[in-house]
Amino acid sequence: MQNSTSKNIWQVIFASSAGTLIEWYDFYIFGSLSYIIAEKFFPSSNPTLAYIATLATFAVGFIVRPFGSIVFGRLGDIVGRKYTFLLTLLLMGGSTFAIGLVPSYATIGYLAPILVLILRLLQGLALGGEYGGAATYVAEHAPTERRGYFTSFIQTTATLGLFLSLGVILITNLSMRPENFYEWGWRIPFLVSVFLVITSYYIRIKLEESPLFKELKAAGKTSKNPLKESFGKKENLRMVLLALFGATMGQGVVWYTGQFYALSFLQNTMHISLSQSSIIIAIALFMATPLFIYFGHLSDKIGRKKIILSGMILAALAYYPIYKAMDKTVDLSNKTEITEAYVVERTQSKNSDGITLERVAHQHTYNDGTKQKDIFITHKTGDVQEKTEKKVEFTVPPKTAAWLIFLVFIQVVFVTMAYGPICAFLVEMFPTRIRYTSMSLPYHIGNGVFGGLMPIIAVSLVSKYGNHYVGLIYPIAIAIICAVIGALFIKEKPVKDLSIDE
What we know:
- By secondary structure, this protein is of the alpha+beta class.
- The chain folds into two domains: 6-330 and 398-489, Up-down Bundle (Growth Hormone, Chain: A); 334-395.
- The protein is 69% helix and 8% strand.
- The protein has 21 helices and four strands.
- It has helices spanning 6-32, 34-41, 47-63, 65-78, 81-99, 105-108, 111-139, 147-174, 178-183, 188-204, 211-218, 226-231, 234-269, 274-288, 290-302, 305-328, 398-419, 422-427, 435-451, 454-465, 473-489, and strands spanning 343-350, 356-365, 371-381, 384-395.
- A four-stranded antiparallel β-sheet has the order 1-2-3-4, with no helix packed on it.
């Protein structure tokens, strides 16, 4: 049943992973550029509120993911895995491209955030259907004894999608003047996604349906009502709830804390420059990504559960000291300014609305090589000065950057432990006829709701209490609760063949 040739399984993995990577890329461009989106699509009278509103819009995409998992999971269990994730790919790609075309708040007012919100809803629905299809598709091709190893390649796509989004943003940013990037260049990563989606669709359309699903369909055993079978039957509902509260809930907060909140903390709490913070995260992700494969492979040998829960516990114990060490690197109290290195940079440009932007940057250099820029951007219409915005931006020396890379890398190691084996773990919990639906819902609630809300909850807590680390209470608590539930109530079964008769 699962005796796929080596060539065939790698074709399946490549096609499934390529499409999923592009969908994650599309999804995370928004988060990676959230600080610019806050300025472009929301009123600028209160920058903190605009940023929180942007994170809320970002979070909406996560909140609707469970609904996408229900809609597309049902479709995948009735129609098939292949055509369902082709549809989600096109929906995601079209929504991302459209965000790059939405006019700014200065041009169309409140219609701008409304349009962006609608497109984020569509993105979330699409992603809710994508992962379950790709994961199920690969798992139903993979040989039993190597299921953790082969499905772990799907697990790399979320991190690689974030890595790709950071890379495209960084290249675009470095290829033009800063004022041009802030004015219109930020749209380019959204617009180029259309070419990536077309390429991925071409690769995927050549795939055949999952052999297990074809066998199920030929035998007339496909589910007539996957939702009722998944959530209406007591025993299967119990497994869905255990998958959520004993695995994916904690895995979700570890994923978003170790990668997304780390980026947000660098940019918005520590005020590290866009280019340097992107490089720090990108290098850490690049170094740690192979560990997804390693822990997926290890789970074939020693079991999935202990690796997943260990990642949660280690993360909960390490977050506070890690973020305190990160924050300390830009603490100026122990640094001495080199006064003769003080410089002032002045530039002037016009935006698309005809407003003149005068940018004055006061650069302070400290004895360890840290550079601080106090940037004042004045908006003028003719000779009338409308408003002045102030930003603080740090650039740290190579030694400090290397230390920050290491601290982020450690967090991503926890991510790889919790996330690498989770696909095989979830696939093995549910029967073939309702697998797409049953595994998608707990995955997307755990990742989309518990994990996806992590950045806005953390930033809101920091904003309210003024403590840089108070936001960590949420992921630490969720990770510990999930690990305890998983340890007590989930009994890991021996790995077995997937069958249409389960």
